[in-house]
Each structure stands twice: as structure tokens, then as C-alpha cells.
Amino acid sequence: MPLLWAAKLLKARLLINRGAPGDYAQVIGLTSDIIANGPFNLEDSVKDIFLEKGFSSREVMLGILPYPNETYQYMMYQVFREYVGSDSLVALLSDDGRNRWMYKDVQTAYGSFHAVTKYYPGDPDNPAQTPLSCYGYAFRLTEAYLLRAEAIALSNGDLATAKSLLTTVMGHAGAGPAELAAVAAAATPAALQLEIVKEYLRNFAAENGVDWYALRRLPLAAIHRLNPAITDPAKLIFPIPPSELTYNPVIQNPGY
Q1: Taking Cα atoms as reference points, which of 114, 93, 101 lies closest to residue 176?
Q2: 19/79 same-domain check
């Protein structure tokens, strides 16, 4: 039965990215069903999912359990540090309680960077793997709230309802006064969609990719303001892997 609810959320995720006639209404219907009738609840604090509860959280709809002795996620974030928090993420969290636990600044011989500590509660200068540091979360109930709010805004629905869904999520995540004030001030569907996408970026950073797809749904100018590295529409498409370019030299990676 839990897979049924995850499948509904997956369908809603696909439909909002397609955005064809009738898709937003389906997204609203699917996510309303999940929120009202599914066996899930928002966690009181999003932090508890990643650092304490893992799959025992009632918010997790579908998780990815690591193989025994798997270390990939922990090694990439904490040891090899191939994936670090961007300056744009830090800016988004400037008025947010998540800036105290989702990343920590680390000084090294090669300079400073923002270590991702979303899955790791310890000292990033002296990392030690924890039981939850390699867990993955494919679907969480938070996404259903944000999808429903965005679909309401995109279909010119009741903005007050969409704002209520958004601020509910933000309240569980530790949003600050300036973030909540920006939601309250959003007077158009486009302005509210922007605030919803900002919450995707904050809530799902370094998690399951829905933050990236949400960002892509904005106009390019808005995308660039949130992520200055994206200056060309080509950079909204994942690049062709180097190995493929080696065997097929005719194809190219436009914009990369």
C-alpha cells in the first residue's frame, strides 16, 4: 500500500513538470488525496528526519536503504567533499533555521567551503560515519504540499490556500520572518510560484533532485537570480557524459 501513495506522488511530480492542459488539476487532485488520506504526517522538525529518525519518520513515503557498509554519500559530502553547499544556497538560508544544521563552514589548506551536513550531525573537520548518513529519501510528504501549492498558483487558483500549504511546510522546516513575510506579500501567481520554488531549493537541497526540476519551471531571469551560475538555457539540460563524447566525437555539449 505505501507504494501506491509514492506512485501518486511520482505521477504528480511528472505532471507538474509537463504542464500540459489539465495537468495542474490532476496534480491538485493527487496531492490532495495524499495529504488527506495517506498514512503520512509532516515531521514536527524536518531536521529530525535526517539526523534522528530516518525511515521511522511518518513523513517519509519512500526511502532508499544503503547497502551494508555503503559509504558513498558520506564520503562525497564529508570526506572527499565533492559536493558542497553553494553560495546561492547559503543566501537562501540566510533567514532560516536550517542554516544551523544543513551546512557548516570548513577551513582547509585549499580554502573554505560549505560542508553539507544535512545527513551528518558531527564535526565536519573530524568526520565519522553515522547510521543515517547514507540514507536516501525518494519521496517525502513535504513534496505533496509544495506540489499542490504550486499547481494551485499555476492554475490561477486561490492564492490563500496555496500560501497556507506553503507556510505549513515552512513552519515545520524552521523558516524565518523575512521568508514568511515574502510569502504573505506575494500578490500574483508568478510571485507565489517563486516563493514556492525557493522552498523546494531550501527543503530538498542535496536530496532527490526535485529542487532542480522546480528551479527549471521558472523563467530564465528568475533562475539566474536564484542561481547566478545558470546564464544559458542549455545549462538547464544535464550534460552529455564525457565517456559518450569520447566515443561519439560528433555530438557536443552546447553551453558547457
Answers
A1: 93
A2: no
d(CA 224, CA 71): 34
For residue 100, what are the contacts with CB-CB under 8 A and spacing of at least 6? Answer: none
Query: Closest by alpha carbon to 71, among 127, 140, 137?
Result: 127
Question: In this structure, how many other beta carbons lie within 10 angstroms of the beta carbon of residue 108?
Answer: 10
Q: How many domains does the chain have?
A: 3
Query: Grid coordinates representing 10?
Result: 511520482
According to DSSP, the β-strands at 84-85 and 111-116 are antiparallel
| DSSP collapsed to 3 states, 32-95 | HHHHHHCCCCCCCCHHHHHHHHHHHCCCEEEEECCCCCCCHHHHHHHHCCCCEECHHHHHHCCC
Q: For helices 177-185 and 189-203, give the axis angle rounded to 10 degrees.
A: 150
Grid cell locating 242: 564525457
Q: Is 2 helix (H, G, I), strand (E, B) or coil?
A: helix
Segment 37-58 mean pLDDT: 97
**DSSP structural state of residue 113:** E
In this structure, are 79 and 191 located in the same domain? no
- The answer to whether the beta carbons of residues 118 and 206 sit under 8 Å apart is yes
Q: Which of 49-53, 199-203, 243-247 has the lowest mean pLDDT?
A: 243-247
Backbone angles phi, psi at 134, to 5 degrees: -115, 10
The reply to whether 217 and 173 lie within a common domain is: yes
Same domain (yes/no): 116, 127: yes
Residues 154, 57, single domain; the answer is yes
Give the domain extent around 79. Answer: 62-133
Same domain, 112 and 184: no
Q: Is the pTM of this model over 0.90?
A: yes
Q: What is the pLDDT of residue 1?
A: 62
